[in-house]
Amino acid sequence: MTSTPTRARPRTVGRARAVLRRLGSLVLTLWVASFVVFASLSLVPGDPTAWLLRGHNPSPQARAAIREQYHLDEPFLVRYGHWLGGVLHGDFGRSLRDRAPVSHLLATQLPTTLTLVALSGLLITIVGMTVGAYAALRHGRVSERVVLLLVTIGFATPSFVAAIVLKWIFALKLGIFPTFGLGDGGWGDRLQHLALPTVALSVTYLALVTRITRSAMLEQLSRDHVEVAIARGLPRRQVIWRHVFRNALGPILTVSGPNIAALLVSSMIVEYAFGLPGIGQLLVSAADTNDFPVVQAIVLVLVAAFVIANTLVDLVYPLLDPTITSPQAAR
Amino acid sequence: MSALAEPALKRLRQRTRGISALSIVSAAILVIFVVLALASSWIVPYDPTAGDFTAILQDPSAEHWLGTDQQGKDVLSMLIGGAWTSLLGPLGVVVVSTVLGFVVGMVAGWRGGWVDSVLSRGMDILFAFPALLLAILAVSLFGKGLTAATVAMSIAYLPYTARLVRGVVLQERARPYVLAYKGLGLSDTFIAVRRVLPNIAPLVLAQSAINFGYALLDLAAISFLGLGVQPPEPDWGAMINGGQSALLAGAPYAALAPAVAIVIVVIAFNEVGEELADRIQGIS
Amino acid sequence: MNAVPGPAERAQAVLAQGVHKSYWVGPTEITAVRDVSFTVRPGGALGIVGESGSGKTTLARMVVGIEEPDAGTLTVAGEPMLTRPRGASARVAQAKRAQMVFQDPYLSLDPRRTARQSLEDAVRAHTSGTRADIDARVDELLQHVGLGEREAGARPRRLSGGQRQRVAIARALAVDPAVLVLDEAVSALDVSVQAQILRLLVRVRAETGVALLFVSHDLGVVRYVCDDALVMFRGEIVERGPVGHLLDHPEHPYTRLLRASIPQEGWDPEAIGQARRDFLAGLG
Amino acid sequence: MSDVLEISDLSVTLDQGAARPILDGVSLTVAAGDFVALVGESGSGKSVTSRAALGLWPGQATVSGSVRSCGVEMVGASASDLDRVRRGQVGMVFQDPRAGINPVRRIGDFLTEGPQLALGWSAERANARALELLEAVSLPDPKRHLRQYPHELSGGMLQRVMIASALMTQPALLLCDEATTALDVTTQAEIVGILTTLCVDLGTAVLFVTHDLDLAAATCDRIAVMYAGQVVESGRAEDLFEDPHHPYTVGLLDSRPPLGGLAPDTDLQAIPGTPLSLAESPAGCRFATRCQARTPQCETRPGLLADGVQRLVRCWHPSGSTPASTPSGARS
After folding, report:
1. Residue B283, number of CB atoms within 10 A of its CB
2. Beta D305-306 vs D312-313: how paired, if at all?
């Protein structure tokens, strides 16, 4: 938006340093998170082998495989080192259910989740910002009230409630959209299968982004610099665009960013409700069937994705607000 | 008698002036749900855990106001019976996270320095774990049910309160009125606990009311995913999950009733929380 | 850092010798106060004049112990002022040496406490009298600063700016301090109200014998309130003297510039602007 | 000479939450090239009056009377009339440049966007004019400042940018709303100097809104003193200073501790009480509650009386040399 071709040198250096610091803190957070996820296994009482294998076939081979996978005969830190080394090389161990490599499961299921999250993110950003801006510009009118009412309801509607309501209306009453699975056809079929899940996943966050956009715009509308622009007879469209919406982007991003990142996690509810083969559904079924290596791997992947997404928001923020030079200060 | 009652009424009217009707309705709804939850075992028309295979998938009727599910369980009874577990979990999450968050935020903001750095760093790391994810990790470690999920969520919600409290404490601490208290020779503990805390408590309370709604949604999601409250114990999230097949079979009430209950309760909490926040801004 | 106070220090209400204070803003060190020395005799009134960034506020905050000097000696009634005095008796003793009235009347009072409650807090910290004694003292203070029953029972947001500053002055006087530090305490007030507060300050000084350290950018106001004044520019004292002499016969170019900048008969802003540019250019 | 601003009997009443109008029958004229000061304390309505010249009204208010800016009626004006006046004929300098200049846009954008977007100037023309004005307001390195963001400049520098931007189109009238209040005294002097020189050169008239009577007198030819939404006294600056007629003007002058010190055996005279809040609405004279010379007559509302040459005062018993003559506009 504001490209920065002519920036003084010290500022660039300061910004580069701030970016490095933010990336450093990202690495630290990821490292601690990996440790927490790994060490959580030590919280369970009793013999970890027996615990890991509860509900599975406790054959001697399986026991040996587990002890080897987790290096259970070695000291704790060495075990962690082995595990982390594996993770960094893309080796998340094997599922207890069918001995399939977890990385393989992730690779097949991740695209569905990412597609769902991307579609939802687009829907939320475009519709949320448009409707929020509309409501702000209709401040005090009936149309704003209507938007606010929808926002209040949408904000309290979790994705699983949205999912069953959508299923009920569209599948049962109208019979328009499919309600289960991804289909087996091409992209068109797949998108049709993703339509309801995308909407279900978006409802809460759509309400949130709408609300934030509205209040950020209203906040800017009350600012002195907007009055100055009006006092100079700037065309209204330009006042809104250059001074209200542009300035509201920063606050909108800070609040919406982390929430859109949270879609990665909420996605599991929708995948479960609509039987979509994403990693969220994989996580739920793994948790349901005591398949701990899979749970561990997916939790780690999702935490990493969530943290990276939040870091990106922090790094983008200074580009929207030149008064902020350090990404850390944006929070 | 009336002479005594009149000022009381007048006071009440003064106190409620400016409060939106929606917030009053919201507060009333919350009271009703809490009463239902507390009195559930006396007022449920049927045993919410016992099916009746002679009356499955019924539409609402005089006997079953909200119909029955695929096992013939009375939906209204399940709804009332499930109110208890559905509200108790979030209450635990909010109480624990608010109390701990208050302590952490207050200490970090008031003491500053390395104490603040360490605590803030810790909160940043907790932020990396979305509540739902931490709850699932806990459930897979300690077994399905509300307990593990509630404890995990209390931890996941902690940094939100802590960060809010730290922020306002930092702000208050630099205010001249606090500097004046210090200058008068009052002790730090007295100023922090007796003077600053009451000033920021309403703001945190408002946040807690809103957090209650979030926690309710997150815990209901865990039950919906089949990892929380296990049937036949009644719970709204579990009911929606269990009611899906009834829904597709043409009897939507088993799933829709708890869905509507969840939405209404969360709206009510959000409204009350926002009303509180508005009133606080009006005061200072 | 601070030497043992000798008799010379005891004789002064405020004694500053070679006081130095700097801050770190990122990687750069900014000197707020550089080698400042001055004294205020008991019951005296010293004005500190300067523009933003002159270090006058930092100096005021050091005198009341909100901040401590990096180097040099600063004693009030013979003792150094500490940011964290140890123990209740040390805090109370320090409070009795210096009190501050802040610039912004909107932030200097606790929003939740009435004028009377604010004064009670102050009185109670310094007397162990009965409830009646405390009430009597609070009444006396209220009367002293010209506040009536209605104002006494009102919370800050129901009071005007001038009334709030009266409460703040009464609160400071409650502990019977040796020195009253006023940091731009009248600059946020309307002219007609400002005159009321200035008259109050002069009267308070005459009646209680409290010494005043009056920080302001307004030369006319300083002349009315103070006996002596010093002019600060970029952290240093550039000129000092009896206030009348200082204003009528300024010697330092900056004092002259300041004196000339005030709108008055025969004011020539263009010439002043040129003089200002020349002066700043002369600093290099 | 024609008047660039002609306010007559302007009243503005908030639709909610106020017992009295925020402007109550204000009349004021500014002739072309004239410097007029509007002086008052907080809540006097001086800012509302100056904004009226641009057709900027407080939200949800009822407006009556007439405001003619450069001949265009602003009360109930059409959008195109408003735009015409705002886009070139009347400029405004606001109190706080830090808040008034969009923080996420460059200084250059701030200066040129008005003429470019509203008047269709070319970028070259707008840039050239911006550079010219930045030089005129004595900014040291105009080319560099054009590319900077507001937070990189000091308050005094930003106020110069604000002045430059208001003068881009060489307006007939410049409104300055407490334009130097937030600045240090030496900066204030320099900026007032720049402002007056530029406006004299351009032939721009100035309505100078301030709480500082001394500054008003030092800057302007005429002064109007406002209290609680009314003009209580107006006249030539010297006359008002040497011989104030309204008790409020007298009080204001006596409230200022003089730079040269008080005369022996005199003390500062404060006006008792506090400025009238919007919740108070006395029936008679607005100033009566704080006035030392109050009589029963003050229970009824005084009109704005001509009190000597070029002198108007709203008081039943004005002090000063000239006795009150016949009412000129005895409105209610």
Report:
1. 11
2. antiparallel
CB atoms within 10 A of CB A57: 9
- How far apart, in whole angstroms, are the C-alpha atoms of residue C28 and residue C25? 5
* pLDDT tens for each residue of A199-233: 999 999 999 999 999 999 999 999 999 999 999 99
Across B162-169, average pLDDT: 94
Other Cβ atoms within 10 Å of B5 Cβ, number: 9
Span C139-176, pLDDT tens digits = 999 999 999 999 999 999 889 999 999 999 999 999 99
Secondary structure class of A130 (helix, strand, coil): helix
How far away is chain C from the Cα of B176, in angstroms, using its nearest Cα?
Answer: 5
Calculate mean pLDDT across residues C129-134.
90
Q: What tokens does A315 get?
A: 């790094």
Higher pLDDT, B212 or C105: B212
- Can you tell me the distance from the alpha carbon of A62 to that of D250, in angstroms, rounded to the nearest whole number? 99
Alpha-carbon gap, residue B65 to B59, rounded angstroms: 8
- pLDDT of C9 strictly over 80: no
CB contact under 8 A, A232 and D104: no
- Judge whether B190 and B129 are in contact, CB under 8 Å: no
Pairing mode of beta strands D205-210, D173-177: parallel
CB contact under 8 A, B227 and A284: yes
In one letter, which amino acid is D92? M
Angle between helices C269-283 and D185-202 (to 10 degrees): 130
Furthest CA-CA distance within chain A: 83
What are the phi and psi torsion angles at C5 (to 5°)?
-65, 130
CA distances from C91 to C88, C176, D135 (A): 5, 14, 56
Cis omega (within 30 of 0) on the bond before D282? Answer: no
- Nearest by CB: C95 against B184, B195, B199: B184
Residues of chain B with C-beta less than 8 angstroms from the C-beta of C185:
none
Q: How far is it, in rounded angstroms, from Cα C55 to Cα C58? A: 5
For residue D1, the model assigns a pLDDT of 52
Taking residues D36-52, what's their average pLDDT? 94
Please give the residue that has the higher pLDDT: either B13 or B128: B128
Does D107 reach chain A within 8 Å, measured CB to CB?
Answer: no
Report ipTM for this prediction.
0.87
Contact B193, B201 (CB under 8 A): no
Kindly identify which residue of chain C lies nearest to residue D137, measuring between CA atoms. Answer: C273
- Residue in chain D nearest A325 by alpha carbon: D151
Q: How far apart are CA D108 and CA D120, in angstroms?
A: 16
Per-residue pLDDT of C220-276, as tens digits, reads 999 999 999 999 999 999 999 999 999 999 999 999 999 999 998 889 998 999 999
Which amino acid belongs to residue C252?
A: H
| pLDDT number for residue C6 | 59
Which chain C residue is nearest to residue B181, measuring alpha carbons?
A: C122
8 A C-beta contact, residue B256 and residue B247:
yes
What is the pTM (predicted TM-score) of this model?
Answer: 0.88
Q: Is the pLDDT of residue A319 over 90?
A: no
- Among A109, A161, A154, A160, which residue's Cα sits nearest to residue A128? A154
Least Cα separation, residue A3 to chain B (angstroms): 31
Chain D CB contacts of A233 under 8 Å are: 82-88, 114, 118
Query: What distances in angstroms separate CA A245 from CA A207, B174, D112, one per listed residue?
Result: 18, 33, 20
Query: If we measure between CA atoms, which residue out of A239, C41, D236 comes closest to residue D225?
Result: D236
Average pLDDT over residues B113-142: 92
A243–D contact, CB cutoff 8 A:
yes
Q: pLDDT band at B101, cuts 50/70/90?
A: very high
Q: Do chains B and D touch (3 or more CB pairs under 8 A)?
A: no
Query: Within an 8 Å CB–CB cutoff, is residue A61 touching chain D?
Result: no
Taking the C-alpha atoms of residue A158 and residue A155, their distance in angstroms, rounded to an integer, is 8
Closest CA relative to residue B227, chosen from B127, B119, B122, B142: B142
